Amino acid sequence: MKPRARTVIGLLVAAWAALSARPAATAEDLVVDLSAPVVAITTGFTGADLLLFGVVGGAGDVVVVVRGPARDETVRRKKRIAGIWVNRDLITFEQVPSFYATATNRPLNEFVTPEFLLDNQIGVRSIELKPKLKGLDAVEVARFRDALVRNMQKQGLYARQPGNVTFLGNRLFRTTITFPANVATGTYGIDVYLVRDNKLISWKTTLMTVRKFGFEAGVFDFAHRHSLAYGVLAILIAAVAGWLAGAVFRRA
Amino acid sequence: MQIYLPIAELSVNVFLLLGMGGGVGFLSGLFGVGGGFLMTPLLIFIGIPPAVAVATEANQIVASSVSGVLAHWRRGNVDFKMGIVLLAGGVVGSSFGVWLFTLLRGIGQVDLVIKLSYVAFLSVIGGLMFSESIRAMLRRRKQTPTKRHHHYWIHGLPLKMRFRKSRLYISALLPLGVGFIVGVLSAIMGVGGGFVMVPAMIYLLGMPTVVVVGTSLFQIIFVTANVTVLQAVSNQTVDVVLAMLLLAAGVIGAQIGARFGSRMQGEHLRGLLAILVLTVCAKLTYDLVTTPEDLYSLIDTGDHR
Questions:
Q1: What is the tens place of the pLDDT at every residue in B15-69?
Q2: For residue B65, what are the contacts with CB-CB under 8 A and spacing of at least 6?
Q3: Could you say which of A80, A148, A252 has the minimum Cβ distance to residue B298?
């Protein structure tokens, strides 16, 4: 057994014990935790898996929604001009999550209605994406919205399929959240919903962070905070490297 | 083995980058060109954002030009006076180019302009080089002598200056203008501009071939250094990790390429280079005119943060 899996089971048992030990706990309680609150981007970063686990207080289905830090996103459509494909029309959407993934213990359509999904913004079709400009043609907005989701899916930032929430027994559940290598840094919100009879019984929000660490973080911060010094240093490194190469090969 | 590039913000295989650096370095050593015009499209092709590719390549060219100019300097093949005049034009041109680049990035058209510039310049230069090398090969057989100096209207321009090393007495406006145009290209296309500079120096300014490459490299160092700093300041798109990997492999490839190149005939080399240039150009043109897989795309305008 992997050490990580062992700690997780340990934590699950602890969570379970905590929940059962508390007499005041109602039947609808929901306890959630992550294997790590931080995803660290370091030199060898190729993406990361994070384990989310928890305990439900009562019967029901579990839905997990992960949202990356929001930002404005501009979608452009190409048009053929004089034989060349050129970016023309654009729509900018506000507060677009830079990452979006869901996980459920069984297919959503088996236990909730499409209206429920829309109300709670569950699934890529239900994410609320508003154009920055008002009064745009609704059909056009829908086209650009689909294109936005499609492009995010192509980059691996929006999940195409919901992930699996696995129940271990009646109360314990776990799921794996997979982050690709191109994830944005920032604070991620993870909402866990307990649903019964198409109704939201209980929900919990957990926050986690994606951060650059060590050398990567240093380079990025330096480039953004002291961009002039960074540029000058970049030239100096290049000049020294070039001079060294010339000197070495001259001797060889 | 994957490495996460801190500015490009994605992870790329180290060996792919080293292979690209070495391969382009080999070709640049073989043909005596900077290789920026090959590397920048390659970087974009493997998924590096164009803005990062252009700015980082400028940084890498600083290194390759420094290592190249040293050899020419030792042989006394650098016309510093001419280099400084070209450079003056180049600094103004590249500053204007970075400003234009930032503006185009803001309106989401920078990718198109980069690609169009490549298509325009590579097709003209490639075509000229190809026909010239064919003519040279034919001439070699016929052994007809060629005329060295041509006289155009441009030789009547004011502000005449004497360039002893190049044995020229021409208007300073000429090298200034050439420097300016190459500077703009350098900023927008992420190239040193040697492929424009060298023919312009030979055919337009009439410089002796022996000092052309050294002088061109000399001014490229400063123009690309200027581009690097300006891109770093206005777009924060210079990825030093990427630049280091490319140049480490690039300098080695260039040395090997140079040894191969010294055994080949000049016009054959130019003919091969022309074919290479035209191939890159054809690929870029193809991408511009064929219907893209998805007409919609997310545009990096550089204002996410």
A1: 999 999 999 988 888 877 778 888 988 898 888 888 899 899 999 999 888 888 8
A2: A242, B34, B192, B217, B218, B220, B221, B224
A3: A148
| Per-residue pLDDT tens digits for A155-181 | 889 988 888 999 998 889 999 999 998
Chains A and B form CB pairs within 8 A to the count of 183
| Contact (CB<8Å) A238/B298 | no
> Which pairing describes strands A61-67 and A84-97: parallel, antiparallel, or unpaired?
unpaired
ipTM of predicted assembly, 2 dp: 0.83
Residue of A nearest to B119 (CA): A84
Specify burial of residue A2 (Cβ count, 10 A radius: 0-12, 13-18, 19+).
Answer: exposed
Contacts of A76 in chain B (CB under 8 A): 108, 296-299
Q: How far apart are CA B41 and CA B47, in angstroms?
A: 10
Residue A203 neighbours by CB distance under 10 Å: 15
**B173 in contact with A, Cβ within 8 Å:** no
- The Cα of A57 is separated from the nearest Cα of chain B by a number of Å equal to 41
Residue of A nearest to B109 (CA): A87
Reduced to 3 states (helix: H, G, I; strand: E, B; else coil), residue A78 is strand
The answer to whether the Cβ–Cβ distance between A76 and B232 falls below 8 Å is: no
Beta pairing, strands A199-212 & A48-56: unpaired
Residues 271-300, chain B: which have Cβ within 8 Å of A?
Answer: 288-289, 291-292, 294-299
Kindly write down the DSSP assignment for every residue of A124-182, as one continuous string.
GGG---EESSSS--HHHHHHHHHHHHHHHHHTTSB-SS-EE-EEETTTEEEEEEEE-TT
Chain A: give the shortest CA distance to residue B247, in Å. Answer: 8
The count of C-alpha atoms lying within 13 angstroms of the C-alpha of A110, restricted to the half-sphere facing its C-beta, is: 8
Other CB atoms within 10 Å distance of the CB of residue B275: 13
Q: Summarize pLDDT for A44-82 with one digit per residue, the tens.
A: 888 899 999 999 988 889 999 999 999 999 999 988 888
